[in-house]
Amino acid sequence: MRLRLLPAALAILLLAACSSTPTATSPSASPSAAPSVTTSASPSPSPSASATATALDCPPWTDDPDSQISAIGPNRYAGACLGMTFDEATANGTKVVGDEQCPWYSTIVGDDDLGFYINAVQGSQEAGGTISLFMVKWFGNPADAASYEMPATPEGITIGSTRAAVLDAYPTASEISFDDISRGTRKQIVVPTGDNTTYNFDIVDKLVTEISWGEGLANGGPNGDICAL
Fold first, then answer.
1. What is the mean pLDDT of the chain?
2. Does residue 225 form part of some domain?
């Protein structure tokens, strides 16, 4: 990804994601439900893991540009990783705190003016649950995201990447569509990264507008809103 100077507000947010409390709350949401899926290229019954899904370990996070650890990985956002509690993620270098209304849902980074959010979600609503998925949401024009140094996968895919770039980066990908119970039809490119983990890239007008990744998303999702405010 080409390096650019970040606008000050977003630079502070992206670098502070691992050390400060969220600056904004996420959009309203409600518990998810299983998607009704229509596939244009159905995922194989036993998908092969992508090249990025090597050892899904979780080294402590550092914002050192020479660390060679991408902010987004098959099992992580920065220092928060699948299977960690919010407290464990915080101890690993990324402060993750449950939202007051939805303790199982955390806004790690939030900017209402930009419409930019990074969220971590527990797999259950029980106290002390572990992280099962992450989301990066961008509610503006995805083409504008190129003005910022956005978090990306090790292959360089991020908000505003083209559909063609995603398919080129991930030969095991499948394109699907499903009827989201709160948002209507969504089109995603789904990339297997492990036995029960995937990257899910929402595609609108051939650009990535949202990224979800973690467990249980192989048929699309997450479906519906996740936190009812």
1. 78
2. no
Please check whether residue 89 lies inside any domain of the structure: yes
The rounded distance, in Å, linking the Cα atoms of 153 and 69 is 10
Residue 221 belongs to some domain of the structure: no
Are 217 and 34 contacting, i.e. CB atoms less than 8 angstroms apart? Answer: no
Q: Return the ∠ at Cα 84 (arms to 83 and 88), rounded to 5°.
A: 170
Q: How many CA atoms lie within 13 A of 222 on its CB side?
A: 24
Backbone angles phi, psi at 166, to 5 degrees: -65, -50
45 vs 218, residue with greater confidence: 218
Strand partners, 131: 122
Total number of domains in the chain? 1
Name the residue range of residue 46's domain: 8-23+36-215
Distance CA 5, CA 114 (A): 17
CA gap 82, 56 in Å, rounded: 9
pTM to 2 decimals?
A: 0.75
Dihedral of the alpha carbons of 219, 224, 228, 229, in degrees to the nearest 10 = 120
Q: Cα(227)–Cα(229) distance, rounded to whole angstroms?
A: 6
Write the pLDDT tens digit of every residue in 33-79: 222 222 233 333 323 333 333 345 888 888 777 677 889 999 999 99
- pLDDT tens sequence across 101-155: 999 999 999 999 989 999 999 998 888 899 999 999 999 999 999 898 899 999 9
CB atoms under 10 Å from CB of 220, counted, come to 27
Which of 134-138, 198-202, 225-229 shows the lowest mean pLDDT across its residues? 225-229
- Residue 228 falls within a domain, yes or no? no
